[in-house]
Amino acid sequence: MHTIEHQLSQEPTRRLSNLATSIIIIALLLWSVTAFNLSNLSENGLTIAKNIFKGIFNPDLSLLFSITKQGVPYLLVETMAIAFLGTIVGAILAIPLAFLSASTIVPKPIAFIVRLFLIVVRTIPAIVYGLMFVRVVGLGPFAGVLTMSLTSIGMLSKLYVDVIEDLDTSILESMESIGCTTFEKIRYGIFPQLSALFISIMIYRFDMNLRDAAILGLVGAGGIGAPLIFAMNAYKWSEVGAILIGLIVLILLVEFISNKIRTQIVRG
Amino acid sequence: MNFNVLAKRHITLQNGKVVVMKRSTTPLIILIGLILIYFSVQITGFNMEAIIKRIDQFFVILKEMMQPNFSYTTKLWQPLFDTIKMSLLGSILGAIVAVPIAFCASSNIIKNRFIVISSKFFLSLLRTLPTLIVALMATFIFGLGTMAGFIAIFLFTIAYVGKLLYEQIENADMKAYEAMHSMGLTTVQSFRYAILPQVLPNYLSTTLFCFEGNVRYASILGYVGAGGIGLLLNENLGWRNYANVGMILVMLIVTVFIIETISEHFRKKLM
What we know:
The structure holds two protein chains of two kinds. By secondary structure, chain A is mostly helical. Chain A has twelve helices and no strands. Chain B folds into two domains: 9-65, no CATH class; 70-270, MetI-like fold (Orthogonal Bundle), CATH 1.10.3720.10. Chain B contains ten helices and two strands, in the order E-E-H-H-H-H-H-H-H-H-H-H.
């Protein structure tokens, strides 16, 4: 017993740092608590809340299963097409940028500048790109594709870089020693190491793009977002319910499938 | 990937041994990819010509953004702080509320399958709802302003932190927990003294990471009227006042960068 008590007394006292952390967190909480105000609560807020729930649990079934261009299935396919094409274009554009920002391949200053550029690209919200592209190519899903491509680049190249910097270079050295050309070194030494992980990253990003594509309709860039917003602004909650159910089912399904494929790919 | 339907090639070696070589699935995957690309191009109306013709417009807008209007800064502080407040409050409260829900969703602590499955389903449902849509719904109920943004971020944080936390709890070392249980401590007590110390560093790190992401999200929530800097972003984009947009983006990037640096510093310490 004595030894245990002795050991216990040797534990460093963190009272001061704990106190400081608590004070900082409480101060931040108090500072931010002004964001919580119910003064704007509209008097019929509760009625609207009730209507929302009623609508979501009684979805407009004819909309949910109609196969016209206004029906939920077609809109979901359109959203998926936007996300898919955006991911592919972004994934291809991200490859050169990833190599340029890998500090093991290019000189440090260049890598730093490209990295800074990528941070800037990543921080600008997708909606801003969306609005810019709507001005460039007009309303419609095509603007959505361009937006998705641009927003994917930032995260994709960041994840690519981690893979590239982990490349096993001893393979390249041994290939050089047996007289392989540069092309052969890339094809048989680098490509097989990168392809599986790159594809896994792409599928992950597709999963994320699908969620983003769903809100791009807000700025008129195609997909399921626009009908959703229109239905909401018109207080047609049963239509909102139908669209949301379709969207949730699709996202859960895609997430499930993409997780399955990714574990398969990474395990080999 | 394993396609058993594909024929395998048999190669007979010189010593008479037969070696089976699996046919590569790469051509098949590429073919499927190309078909999907073709249909996506059809559906989205992908138009290379339009890009080439009109892409200069994009750079015109970009160039205007590159000359930010610095005199606009004075009007930006309040919305910027609103954005940070929204995400801070949402992240802290969301992370706290996530703990009991994650506790209920951990199959190794709660033995009642119904509670576990319904909590897990609740979390994935919350996670799937796009934050912007939740914010829009919240503006209908709570009116325009930071409250709606706070609700959206709060719900997203519960879903995100909750999911990662229950995965942590399910992977935790159960020996100490079982020992405490056998000594007569209640489930909550043994959770507090055996599981919590194991998952705490990761939980804090996840919360910080979530907060980083939330600041980014919060900046666009104003777009649907949920308070913060997004409101001004929306207005200025509507008025095509790109110099002001540029200024907002500069402030946003700097803020996100500072918050990310601080949070990364603490996350490295937690590891």
